[in-house]
Amino acid sequence: MGTTVKALAATDAGGALGAFEYELGELGPHEVDVAVTHCGICHSDLSMLDNEWGMASFPFVPGHEAAGTVAAKGELVTHLEIGQRVGVGWQAGSCMHCRHCVGGDHNLCGEMEGTIVGRHGGFATHVRSKAAFAVPLPEGVGSVGAGPLFCGGITVFNPIVQFGVKPTDRVGVIGIGGLGHMALGFLNKWGCEVTAFTSTGAKMDEAKELGAHRCVNSRDDSAIEAEAGRFDFLISTVNVPLNWEAYIGALSPKGRLHVVGAVMEPIPVTAFPIIMGQKSVSGSPIGSPATIADMLDFCARHAIAPVTETFKMSAANDAFEHLRAGKARYRIVLEQDLA
Fold first, then answer.
1. Exposed, middle or buried by CB within 10 Å (0-12, 13-18, 19+), for 278?
2. Distances from the Cα of 20 to the Cα of 46, 60, 75, 300, angstroms
3. Are 38 and 66 contacting, i.e. CB atoms less than 8 angstroms apart?
4. Mean pLDDT per segment of 10 residues, for the chain of length 339 residues?
């Protein structure tokens, strides 16, 4: 017999979440069941709930920023112990044998298993994943703030590693929200000069408290143009179109504009400024389990944690409305009360 899971599920796109129970089934030899104590809410949960990307299946249980403890493990799992604190993010498994997995880029596997794609997520008493994707939480990383690190956090930490951002670099973070506020903290402790681009004046003081050394009004094209040639690295965390020409102009030679916000419209890029400045435009998803572990260690070492608001898991519908209204500051975390 598998574990009976109490969860919250929507029966159709955009619908309210309601009580839902299901059986996990037999545990595979390389799998673990995690008893969820906390689960973050990401904007991707909202996109999946609304089926914006055409990837959701119903009934749909959201939640891909789960933190908890190992409740059960498969017979071949030797590196985790029952009761150990772990987190599970967007990815719950991969093939483990393709060239990307063997090369350490499990997050780029063509057979990647999404925690909430074709399976039930962490708005529940338990969530299941392959053991390699249940990453241990080090001392110094609290369970309340851990979940958001497993999606929003790794999304902005991964490109810092992948593209060799240096402590001497001048970097800019576009959008100081759920992802951007964590990017400020990472890049500050990385040693960079950090500029926050935000359209909200009230966030400018907060941005400096979170790690920015300076701020620029992202609604003011002339202010962005005044930054011409300054940045080695710009990371865009927003999901709306920007003045892409101005931001590319703000890059120094060999600079990179990196996109992690899911902008649905095409990004127009003029070839000449990129060619003449040897500039790059790129994007990336989450990171591998190894990079997630490095990020968690970095957070523990530098006392980095997301800014969170908490709701009871049973109040997930209220939490979603809070997110839809743009009121989250800066990540919402659900506390387990379904058990």
1. exposed
2. 18, 10, 29, 36
3. yes
4. 89 98 96 98 96 96 98 98 98 98 98 97 98 98 98 98 98 97 98 96 92 97 98 97 97 98 93 97 98 98 98 98 94 97
Residue with tokens 């979603």: 320
Q: Kindly give the residue spans of alpha helices, DSSP state H, lying in the chain.
A: 43-49, 99-102, 143-148, 154-162, 180-190, 202-210, 221-225, 244-249, 271-277, 289-302, 316-324
- Asked if 233 and 163 count as a contact pair (C-beta separation under 8 A), the reply is yes
For residue 324, the model assigns a pLDDT of 95
Distance from C-alpha of 236 to C-alpha of 84, rounded to nearest angstrom:
35
Domain over 4-142+307-335 is classified CATH 1.10.240.10:
no
Place of tokens 């908490």: 310
pLDDT given at position 187: 98
Between strands 66-73 and 31-41, the pairing is antiparallel
Q: What is the pLDDT of residue 202?
A: 83
Global confidence as pTM: 0.97
On whether the CB atoms of residues 221 and 237 are closer than 8 A, the answer is no
Spatial contact of 237 and 177, defined as CB atoms under 8 Å apart: yes
C-alpha–C-alpha distance, residues 237 and 181, integer Å: 10
CA angle 316, 319, 321 (to 5 degrees): 115
Q: Where are the domains of the chain?
A: 4-142+307-335, 154-283
SS (H, E, C) 73-142: ECCCCCCCCCCCEEEECCEEECCCCCHHHHCCCHHHCCCCEECCCCCCCCCECEEEEEHHHEEECCCCCC
Amino acid at 166: K
Query: What crossing angle do the helices spanning 289-302 and 180-190 adopt, rounded to 10°?
Result: 70
CATH superfamily of 154-283: NAD(P)-binding Rossmann-like Domain (3.40.50.720)
